[in-house]
TrEMBL record:
GO cellular component entries: cytoplasm
Record InterPro entries: Hemerythrin-like, RIC_family
Designated name of the protein: Iron-sulfur cluster repair di-iron protein
UniProt domain Hemerythrin-like: residue ranges: 87-229
Major location (coarse): cytoplasm
Species for this entry: Ornithinibacillus halotolerans
Keywords: Cytoplasm, Iron, Metal-binding
Biological classification of the source: Bacteria, Bacillati, Bacillota, Bacilli, Bacillales
């Protein structure tokens, strides 16, 4: 198949997971705003459509020749998707947030005098940490149990309760997505300065990994799990 300007980033990532790397390169949102046609992102970012599409399709052609196992999320039950999110994203995230927070604080304390951008990074990261922790707890304790109940005993009343809850969660996703974009901007794409110490470099590497995991996490919830309902 060939991707065109009419395809959405969210659907492209479902078919071709590695495309998320290209979308990050061009700052194209595939999770929170992933349901807009590519044409809109190209116009917004002032990108040359054919250049990006050629790169995307060439990469997909090469990737298709390799042996990859792509999960068909549309064929999975709600419970299977929820359990995957819990084990793959929620549990590791709740461990990583406080641990990485200590690194962010340490780097700011030691290098904030010569790198003033670290103060802003420290502030945004801690806002992000609180938001993600509260968001994850709400999903685990309120929303996911409702979804599992709906799968067993569907009803319009239960579906409406889920939709109302999801509306708030998607707003949260937009907020944390913007925080991640701001952290990337502040850190210059998570590239440490020349004089960075080991802890400084580890912090930026872990922030980049956190961004990757969170965008995949949000994509799976917004564009697959929530969309199902």
């Amino acid at each position: 198949m060939k991707f065109t300007v009419e395809h959405t980033p969210a659907n492209i990532v479902k078919v071709f997971p590695k495309s998320s790397d290209l979308f990050k390169k061009y700052r194209i949102d595939f999770c929170c705003g992933g349901n807009r046609p590519l044409q809109e992102s190209f116009a917004e970012k002032d990108l040359e459509p054919q250049v990006v599409l050629d790169e995307l399709n060439a990469s997909y052609e090469e990737w298709s020749k390799e042996d990859h196992e792509v999960v068909d999320w549309d064929a999975k039950s709600l419970s299977d998707i929820i359990d995957h999110i819990r084990h793959t994203y929620h549990a590791p995230l709740m461990e990583e947030l406080p641990a990485l927070g200590q690194f962010v604080t340490k780097v700011y304390s030691r290098h904030g005098g010569t790198h003033p951008e670290l103060k802003e990074l420290y502030r945004i990261y801690n806002d992000f940490k609180v938001e993600m922790e509260e968001h994850t707890i709400k999903e685990e304790n309120e929303v996911f149990p409702l979804m599992k109940e709906y799968e067993i005993n569907p009803s319009e009343e239960l579906l409406e309760r889920i939709r109302i809850a999801n509306g708030g969660l998607e707003d949260d996703h937009d907020g944390v997505g913007n925080m991640l974009k701001e952290m990337r901007k502040i850190t210059g794409d998570f590239i440490p300065p020349i004089d960075a110490c080991g802890a400084y470099r580890i912090t930026y590497a872990r922030l980049a990994e956190l961004e990757e995991d969170t965008f995949q996490h949000i994509h799976l919830e917004n564009n697959i799990l929530f969309k199902r309902l």
